[in-house]
Amino acid sequence: MISRGRTGNTKFVKQMNREGILYQLRKEPRLSRAELAARTRLSRPCVSSLVEEMIQEGLIQEVGTGVSKGGRKPILLEYNVQAYAVVGAVFEGSELEMAVADMKGELLAQEHTRLTQPVDGESALRALETTLARLLAASGVDRGRVTGIGVGLPGITQRRSGTVSYAPSTGWMDLPVGKEIEERLGLPVVLDNDVNMMTLGEFFGGAGAGVSSLVYMYVGTGIGAGIIIDKQLYRGSKEAAGEIGYMRIGEAPGRRKEEFGVFEKNFSVPGIQHKAKLLGLTVDPGISVLEQLLALEAGGSGKAGALLDEVYRSWASGIANTVSVLDPEMLILSGEMVHLDENGLSRIRELLSEWVPVLPEIRQAALRERAGMLGAVHSVLEAYPSAIPGSMS
User: Fold this and answer.
1) Which one of 67, 270, 300, 393 has the fewest CB atoms closer than 10 angstroms to its CB?
2) What is the biggest distance separating any 2 CA atoms in the chain, rounded to whole angstroms?
């Protein structure tokens, strides 16, 4: 976050000063030019020049007058959240969640798309193109008003270079996916890991709002975690932090580099479905596997009960390994884990109490499938807070 501006004549410093002004207007709407100068510690002529520029661009608008302190009544300014729009998109397995939002992060239109199996890089890119066209039509937002798109992808993403270095589910290995998306959509792209995007969504507007440190654990096609430390997303030296799916939990036969990790191969949704089938249990891949196992257990299936206990112990092992190192304020359970009933949650808490000395507050995700979209939207707003379409190089 930027709380004050800086003086100078370079393009970079000018951009910082613009962002400082917009930050103040987002924090407290309806400020005068004089109040902005005092809060940003910029000169009044500098503030006036930048404000006039952003009024012309549509980023700021005049909204009446304030109370006079002896002279003319000051003209009040407001950040125009409707001037432009941003797009957020997150892939998880064969699912795509995508939304268009205003510059405040409020969703204007959203869509869920199920991709045709098997999913590969090309089919994922085509889904982005077609879904974006439908969303813009539904929201009434012209493509020329879109400042950028945030895209969450499974695997290890290099945010700065826009490269996906390791993604078994799509086949993207050391590919410049960000550049490809920019060329296909004609929009600046902020690329990140899908679970990181979900973590940001819950942190900004879900179960994690207001906390300083948290771990967000997601179980879906794979298993991953997002880590917030001192209100900042922690990515690691090579942006691979949170790849807990590679923990050695469960059966660990030899694996090829392009395969999923041991933990996620055993106890992701497909891993649990595979174990259920080996036990002779019938499960529908289109419905929550956890809910189906709970129903089978309630109907008297000892095999379902035994598998559930194995899943709880294994998930708790992954949690224990993670929280014992990071000691977060909160742990958020998401993906398939939102279907845990009270008995399942109690069992996991009971195991953790035996295994780790200090437990964080444990909550289930509040936003569910909306978390990733909101996180992707906020990633664009943070990357380009004062930009207008076509101004970013």
Assistant:
1) 393
2) 83
pLDDT at 103: 86
Rounded alpha-carbon distances, angstroms, from residue 363 to 141, 228, 251, 261, 329: 36, 15, 28, 25, 11
Half-sphere exposure of 315 (CA within 13 A, CB side): 34
Confidence of residue 255 (pLDDT cuts 50, 70, 90): low
pLDDT grade for 6, boundaries at 50, 70 and 90: very low
Rounded distance, CA 336 to CA 89, Å? 20
Nearest to 221 by CA among 166, 170, 181, 179: 170
Looking at domain 208-366, its CATH superfamily turns out to be ATPase, nucleotide binding domain (3.30.420.40)
Domain ranges in the chain are: 11-79, 85-199+371-383, 208-366
Query: Hey, CA dihedral for 310, 316, 321, 322, is it positive or negative?
Result: positive
SS3 percent helix, strand, coil of the chain, rounded to 5, is 45, 20, 35
- At 197-246, the pLDDT tens digits run 999 999 989 999 999 999 999 999 899 999 999 999 999 988 889 999 99
Quote the CA–CA distance of 57 and 385 in Å, as a whole number.
Answer: 13
Mean per-residue pLDDT for 267-294?
A: 96
| Nearest-angstrom CA–CA distance, 57 and 75 | 18
Stretch (H or E) spanning 108: strand 107-114
> 75 forms bridges with which residues in the sheet?
65
Strand order in the sheet with 85-92: 107-114, 95-102, 85-92, 146-153, 189-193
How many CB atoms neighbour CB 32 within 10 A?
18
Class of domain 11-79: mainly alpha
